[in-house]
Amino acid sequence: MGEQAGRLHGKVALITGAARGIGRGIAERYAREGARVAVADLDSDSAGETAAAIRATGGEAMAVTMDVTDEAAVSDGVSAVVTAWGGLDVAFANAGIQHIDPLDQLSFANWRKVMAVHLDGAFLLTREALRAMYASGGGTMLYMGSVHSLEASPLKAPYVAAKHALLGLCRSVAKEGAAHGVRSNIICPGFVRTPLVDKQIPEQAKELGISEDEVIRNVMLKNTVDGQFTTVDDVAELALHLAAFPSAALTGQSVVVSHGWHMG
Ligand code: NAD
């Protein structure tokens, strides 16, 4: 670090759900490219560890404790970053959870919980980030969609519905944000081996009455072109490209990274 200006040199980025998994990979990648990175997460211990690990390798990072479904916590977290680092250039709504259940068994509480983390969380971050970006002349909003923003799978109705809805939010931001210099794009990954996915393999095996290996081969990777998982590094590479893109030509887009599971 330091000897060469990175592609995000001088930028301030806040990423939700960045304590682990895909969000952590993006935070680390952004920091390596010179961004100051706010690692926002519900899990403050892990957020602190991730921020410390980034600093240990020469990057700049702070941990922000934030439940994205808590209006005050999101507002306070964004304010803390803007106060500390003087602005906000990139805000990434990445925090997410999964819940596996057939629709006829799904409780209203679990429906609402999944919708709240993905959709309320993305809205709250968007509103606070746009206020900061509009005040400073622009920025980039990014969302973590999924192939499930574009396709459905059984047993994941609230997740599929929330991820579809994020396309609408992303496109709305592209329309409204343009006049203020704000771009907005959404990344749609296929399956990535993170704790979120590892947890659902045995759950799906039980619901579908098949082995865990069959869940991986015949459910998760069945429609990929090569039977491969997408990796955290693949998603982080795309997240860097979208954050560093130099103009508003690229806005309102969903970009799929899924080993060809979804094409189109
Ligand atoms: P993960 O479970 O490894 O990490 C999710 C992080 O979000 C955790 O650190 C968790 O503490 C945090 N989080 C959960 N609820 C929160 C809340 N209310 N407020 C703040 N933070 C919260 O999951 P992941 O696989 O890294 O997923 C990250 C994003 O990528 C999610 O939006 C997920 O839907 C999406 N995604 C994942 C995959 C995949 O295969 N792993 C594929 C497509 C999209």
TrEMBL record:
Its EC number is 1.1.1.30. PROSITE patterns: ADH_SHORT. Keywords: Oxidoreductase. GO terms for molecular function: 3-hydroxybutyrate dehydrogenase activity. CDD domains: SDR_c. Pfam families: adh_short (PF00106). Belongs to the short-chain dehydrogenases/reductases (SDR) family. This is 3-hydroxybutyrate dehydrogenase. It comes from Alloalcanivorax balearicus MACL04.
